[in-house]
Design goal:
Blueprint: H1 3-19, E1 23-27, E2 31-36, E3 39-44, H2 57-72, E4 79-87, E5 92-94, E6 100-108, H3 116-121, H4 127-143, H5 156-172, H6 177-203, E7 207-209, E8 219-222, E9 225-228, H7 236-239, E10 240-242, H8 243-256, H9 260-274, H10 280-303, H11 314-321, E11 333-337, H12 344-355, E12 358-361, H13 362-369, H14 388-407, E13 412-415, H15 421-434, E14 438-443, H16 447-458, H17 469-478, H18 484-487, E15 490-493, H19 498-509
Helix pairs in contact: 4-9, 5-6, 5-10, 6-11, 8-9, 8-10, 9-12, 10-11, 12-19, 13-14, 14-15
């Protein structure tokens, strides 16, 4: 029996004696976990491996403190303290007066079914959960320290090298080589394309001290909503990464399990808050890389006699992901059309999840141009953001961003009123130029319903729109209806429901 095993046994006995409660135990390849009542304690094993060094008490203390520091950024309600372990391995105590022999991370315990990996399997995750987590991750990344352009992390060559290292065993294993070989060619081509982009992302501060291991098993549902936990503490290079690389683990994990709808709800929440549209230029590469990591781990487990039957087909998904159905042409483009309160945003949110699309919201991008957040009230800041000049800038921003996203291979939904014909024409021209399937979503609601929705919106603090009854009246006075030529590329909708969403998708994406 190892000394660390003895220490874990001794601490379990200590906790049981001092609490009068049963102590449950769990083990990972690098840690022991003890669960006692509402508390959990983690001991790091005295290991020195290729990717970590916990071999001395001083190193274990350092990495306990790093784990506490990193995870308190996201989950301070879980990560409480680092406690000295005193006494001896056979008779230890927490925080006693004897000699310090090790350290333990003290955490607040949560229910096993709170893990998102469990909740997804049980069908308990909702789009609202994912949108909220996306917003929280965007705020987390915004506050995280930035890497420097001449520093040790986020260098383009290192990104390509990390992918090559993961791909190497997959190219040699009999069960993976056939799928890994075409992936190798795609990855090399993408790396050549993305090298300047990676360098610019690093210079622009997009490489930050993130989470590093952001998959479904490291997200938990707490009373205050979802949060990530269990950041990588033992290797800075694995967490000092592009923010889109961090997010890609979770978007991949959802998609490979057949929940593209939830992945794009997450992405919608993240992008609405962060505005990091540029990040989608390389998201597909990062998602494929994350799938390769999972495939490699699954292959290693299988080689060691572990079960592989429950593992998703990461390599198959990665291979399909490199070639979207609209490869070689413009991705689909849809714009909404209708008065305030007609249901445009409700429809756009449902469609982005169903189609795996990205949504641009005029209300949000207009505010972003003035340095405001999505939920900031421009009037409270003394700003007039609805001038003709501001509207022109907003639609120019929407057009430029939509063009970039379509070229990156993402279906785009532009959520705006589009009450002027010239505004609609600039996007129909964009669709023709790129060869994109094109649709106008004409949203309608009766006068009473419009008034009711605007009144409800006025009491909400979660809606970016600042439209009022006065704004609606103004819109009704100057709105330019769809012309006969536009009607041919439009579909009229009322209340949003699953049947209607399916009909819109059939009309919008049928050429694909």
């Amino acid at each position: 029996m190892s000394a660390q095993h003895t220490l874990a046994d001794g601490l379990a006995q200590y906790l049981a004696q001092h609490s009068g409660l049963p102590v449950a135990r769990a083990e990972t390849h690098i840690s022991w976990l003890l669960f006692c009542g509402q508390d959990a304690y983690k001991l790091k094993k005295p290991l020195k491996l290729a990717f970590l060094d916990f071999s001395t008490p001083a190193l274990r203390q350092h990495f306990c403190e790093e784990e506490l520091r990193l995870n308190q950024r996201l989950a301070p309600q879980i990560y409480l303290d680092v406690l000295a372990v005193t006494g001896s391995a056979a008779a230890p105590a927490l925080g006693g007066s004897g000699p310090v022999i090790d350290h333990a991370l003290h955490m607040r315990r949560f229910a096993d079914d709170a893990l998102w990996s469990t909740r997804l399997a049980q069908g308990q995750l909702t789009a609202d959960d994912l949108t909220l987590l996306g917003e929280r991750l965007a705020a987390f990344h915004s506050a995280a320290p930035r890497a420097t352009a001449d520093g040790d992390h986020g260098q383009p060559a290192d990104i390509a090298a990390a992918t090559a290292k993961v791909l190497a065993p997959l190219l040699t294993w009999p069960h993976s080589a056939a799928q890994a070989q075409p992936l190798q060619a795609w990855l090399r081509a993408e790396e050549a394309r993305l090298m300047p982009w990676w360098q610019r992302r690093l210079a622009d501060g997009c490489v930050r001290e993130g989470h590093g291991d952001l998959h479904l098993g490291n997200v938990v549902q707490l009373p205050g909503g979802p949060t990530a936990f269990d950041c990588i503490e033992f290797d800075p290079a694995l967490r000092w990464i592009d923010t889109m690389n961090d997010l890609a683990f979770l978007t991949m994990d959802l998609q490979v399990r057949g929940r593209r709808d939830l992945a794009f709800a997450l992405l919608d929440g993240y992008l609405t808050l962060s505005g990091d549209w540029d990040g989608l230029t390389g998201l597909r590469y990062f998602e494929v890389y994350r799938a390769l990591v999972r495939a490699m781990v699954a292959g290693l487990r299988q080689g060691q006699g572990g079960a592989a039957a429950d593992e998703p087909d990461y390599l198959g998904w990665a291979l399909r992901h490199t070639t979207p159905p609209w490869a070689g042409r413009g991705a689909p483009l849809l714009i909404t059309h209708g008065l305030s309160g007609s249901g445009k945003s409700t429809w756009a949110r449902a469609l982005l999840q169903a189609a795996g699309a990205v949504r641009l919201r005029s209300d949000v991008e207009r505010k972003r141009l003035f340095g405001l957040g999505p939920l900031d009230d421009s009037r409270a800041h003394g700003l007039d953001i609805y001038t003709a000049e501001a509207t022109q800038r907003t639609f120019a921003r929407l057009e430029d961003t939509a063009r970039m996203l379509l070229r990156a291979g993402y279906p785009v939904i532009v959520d705006a009123a589009f009450l002027r014909r010239d505004q609609r024409e600039r996007f129909s021209t964009l669709a023709r130029t790129l060869g994109s399937p094109w649709l106008i979503l004409h949203c309608q609601a009766g006068p009473e319903e419009l008034a009711r929705r605007l009144a409800r919106r006025a009491t909400s603090v979660q809606d970016p729109s600042e439209a009022t009854a006065a704004v609606l009246k103004q819109q009704q006075g100057h709105a330019q209806g769809l012309g006969a030529d536009e009607v041919r590329t439009a579909i009229t909708v009322g209340e949003c429901d699953a049947t209607g969403v399916a009909q819109v998708l059939q009309r919008w994406l049928s050429p694909l």
